Model the fold of this input.
Amino acid sequence: MPVAVRQLEAPTAIRTHLGAIFVSLELSRSTWLITSLLPGGGEKMSKHMVAAGDVAGLLARFAELKRRAEARSGTCFPIIVIQEAGLDGFWIHRVLEAEGIESHVVDPASVATSRRRRRANTDKIDGEALVRALLAYKRGEPRVSAMLRVPTPEEEDRRRIARERKALTNERTRHINRLKGLLFAQGISGYEPLRRDRRERLEGLKTGDGRALPVHLKRQIGRELDRLELLIDQIKVVEAERDAMLTAELAVSPAPAMLLALKGIGPEFAAVLWSEGLSRHYDNRRQLAAYAGLAATPWKSGAIDHEQGVSKSGNPRLRTTLVQMAWLWVRHQPRSALTLWFKERVKQNNGRLKKTMIVALARKLLVVLWKYVNSGVVIEGAMTVA
Done:
């Protein structure tokens, strides 16, 4: 007798019960693309657009999604939203949370994409990929994507001082180089624009062929000095705000004072270390190194075993400061265990690989400083300021 084949009531694909409305936001300067997946709607994703910055329109669309989902299933579902960290910052996330909507901000680099050499990339594709990443994250799949811990407005504002000072010092360097370049083209070298007598020395300068500075060039240099002096004054104001912030932080945490007590760490390094990295919570030292972009990136497959160096995918300001501080640590902390480790490794390589070893020292230094300010673990051999 023929065997009756039992017809499956559902396709062979694995189906999961959607207990919420999953939404992704693809943000741009002109429009926001809303990609949604509703319970009871199969696997089809809906897409709608609202004007950029139209929060009322966004919330109205969410209300419409909830109404449609309730009409289909008779149940009121919550909305879960995901967006990429980017130019818009975190204000949209805060608006959604204030409305009682669960919101997540994801690191764009952690969302899985096609590895084809020429892959298609549109807002529609990115929106669907974000919804899939959110579904996997809510299912509890490990390491599916990296959700960010959104800083509070106070934490975000605290970081601005060190970042503004860095921008101002970079701009100051550009003006200094421009001044030196203008004079070098006339055969003049050795002029230092940061000296207090910069304008007096300008009056006595002669070109390489013995002429006085041309009138228009001299006026241009004067305007450059005006901008340079304005930057110098602004840097002083920002540094005063930085020192006041560190003093105010002592009422909340002793960590800034602990950092300043170590020889080789000044107010700027302490401000960057605390505001950019050490004020956050980390479960372990690997998370800490990954946040700073100092985690190792091995390439192992079969017989291939290659180290690609640090990831550089974390906080660039924290990483740059740590590398700079590592060089100063070797100079100002010659008897510390970290400095002895660095010198021994360089000696084993006959004085080579100093740059590679200094990055490794920066990673070790970050870990010991984290343990020092959070648990009071003494840094072996470190000297404090007298």
Residues 1-8, 10-14 have pLDDT under 50 and may be disordered. The first helix runs from residue 55 to 73. The radius of gyration is 28 Å.
